[in-house]
Automatic annotation (TrEMBL):
Keywords (A to Z) from UniProt: Cell inner membrane, Cell membrane, Hydrolase, Membrane, Protease, Transmembrane, Transmembrane helix
TM stretches of this protein: 71-97, 109-130, 136-154, 166-187, 199-217
EC number(s) recorded for this UniProt protein: 3.4.21.-
Residue ranges annotated for the Peptidase S54 rhomboid domain, each copy included: 70-218
An annotated GO BP: proteolysis
GO molecular-function terms, A-Z: peptidase activity
Alphabetized InterPro entries for the sequence: Peptidase_S54_rhomboid_dom, Rhomboid-like_sf
PROSITE patterns: PROKAR_LIPOPROTEIN
Transmembrane helix in keyword set: yes
Descriptive protein name: Rhomboid family intramembrane serine protease
Membrane topology (UniProt): Multi-pass membrane protein
């Protein structure tokens, strides 16, 4: 069942709000003092952040070989972010692309899709790097799923994008061109990144592919935006 045209994207706003609240209350924001040690000590803050990420994030090695409590981390990790830039970048993408995807899918279906895409994206990375001890946090896998679904559902929509090699000029491009360009970058980065510390590009690739395939299988050709449909709101993406 589709959402009602023009309805407020309450799930998208709720996800953004939840991620922001979790971040502000956690040690990664730098706004809360460590629970132990000298509150003014930088080492105490770093230790608190590392313990926080390990507790709520996905560590592939512990996910497969650790206690049963680790099985919930692919869900909790979706609401934990490493720093301000990580949070703001993800939330901007969710704000730009989530509202239209939610409106097309309906609130309940979108919420389940978002969570499932995020969990499966993290699990996909954990399967490939089963022996990794790096900690994965963030909503990137779930948001990548939203981008994949958006590409199928709104291939002719237009979005305003900023590209560094074009001197950050705000230019409008078809969504399919922007998202396919983004996907190729993630794919190339995933192939070269391996298991080194940094961004889990493979989770982005898995999430995007799952989102596109879900939209294709669930909605088929009848739900795609055709020529003459209203364009997307004039929002900027990073």
């Amino acid at each position: 069942m589709f959402g009602k045209p023009g309805q407020a994207p309450l799930v998208t706003y709720g996800l953004i709000g939840s991620c922001c609240v979790v971040f502000l209350l956690g040690p990664a924001s730098g706004l809360t003092a460590p629970l132990s040690g000298d509150p003014g000590s930088g080492s105490s803050l770093l230790a608190a952040q590392a313990a926080y990420f390990e507790r709520w994030g996905v560590v592939p090695e512990e996910l497969w070989h650790g206690p049963a409590a680790e099985l919930i981390t692919p869900l909790t990790a979706l609401f934990v972010h490493g720093n301000w830039l990580h949070l703001l970048g993800n939330m901007l993408f969710l704000y730009v692309f989530g509202a239209m995807a939610e409106n097309r899918m309906g609130r309940g279906a979108f919420a389940l899709f978002y969570l499932a895409a995020g969990v499966l994206a993290l699990l996909g990375y954990a399967v490939v790097h089963a022996g990794s001890d790096r900690t994965l946090v963030g909503a990137s896998g779930a948001i990548s799923g939203v981008l994949g679904a958006f590409l199928y559902l709104f291939p002719r929509a237009r979005v305003t994008s900023l590209f560094p090699f074009l001197f950050f000029l705000p230019l409008r491009f078809p969504a399919w061109a922007v998202l396919l360009f983004w996907f190729v970058l993630q794919w190339l980065a995933a192939r070269s990144a391996g298991d080194r510390p940094g961004v889990a590009y493979l989770a982005h690739v898995v999430g995007f592919a799952l989102g596109f395939l879900y939209a294709w299988a669930r909605y088929g050709r009848t739900t795609r935006v055709k020529r003459g449909c209203p364009p997307t709101p004039d929002r900027s993406t990073p």
